[in-house]
Amino acid sequence: MPKESESIRAALGRAVQAYQGAVDDFDREVARLLGVNETDLRCLELLLTAGSATPGELGGRLGLTTGSVTAMIDRLEKRGYLARTPHPTDRRSTLVQPTSDLRERAGALMMPFVEDSAAQVHARFSDEQLALVVDFLDFNREVQERHTERLRAVAAPKRGGGKAAGPASA
């Protein structure tokens, strides 16, 4: 591999890592201001984007057990951030939806960033460049999700310092 290509790839790796860190930092502050933990925040983000989901869908996306999802939904419902409603087609299931209070609070915290970022990004990059960035992010997200699933399949270490079961390459 030519030296210039190695340099660009190393710079890309550092930039992605730094960006991921900045996103994590921002999310941590939003979680702090909403009074939730980071997993709860991710749940709220999923619901704000999707509009609603079943507890099972949330558990699958977040890698949580049924009991953990129930406890999380109870916490977030108690805070007034989401509501349970009967599923329209499956009477055994419920849907979880964000409340207007959550939409208002999350919007107040995140919209200044979203609007500022959009204005600056669109002023700096052409549509063709942005299409390439979207392709990169979509592709990279797919790779990341595949490896997240791989890690979820590895058994957690036993309490008391035992080694985790699973592939040695994990």
Labels describing this entry:
170 residues, Arc Repressor Mutant, subunit A, two-stranded antiparallel sheet, 6% strand
Task: Describe the protein's architecture and organization.
With 170 residues, the chain is mostly helical. The chain folds into 3 domains: 1-34; 36-98, Winged helix-like DNA-binding domain superfamily/Winged helix DNA-binding domain (Arc Repressor Mutant, subunit A); 100-154. It has helices spanning 3-34, 38-50, 55-62, 66-78, 100-124, 127-152, and strands at residues 82-86, 94-98.
Low-confidence parts lasting 5 or more residues at pLDDT below 50? none
Order of helices and strands: HHHHEEHH
What's the helix count? 6
The biggest sheet, with number of strands, parallel, antiparallel or mixed sense and barrel status, is:
2 strands, antiparallel
Tally of separate domains = 3
Name of the CATH homologous superfamily of the largest domain = Winged helix-like DNA-binding domain superfamily/Winged helix DNA-binding domain
CATH class category label of the largest domain: Mainly Alpha
Please provide the count of β strands: 2
The Cα radius of gyration reads 20 Å
Distance between the termini: 27 Å
Question: Which fold name corresponds to the CATH topology of the largest domain?
Answer: Arc Repressor Mutant, subunit A
Percent in helix: 55-70%
Shape: globular
The computed structural class is mainly alpha
Biggest β-sheet: strands ordered side by side in the sheet: 1-2
Looking at the overall shape, the CATH architecture of the largest domain is: Orthogonal Bundle
Beta-strand content bin = 5-15%
Mean pLDDT over the residues: 92
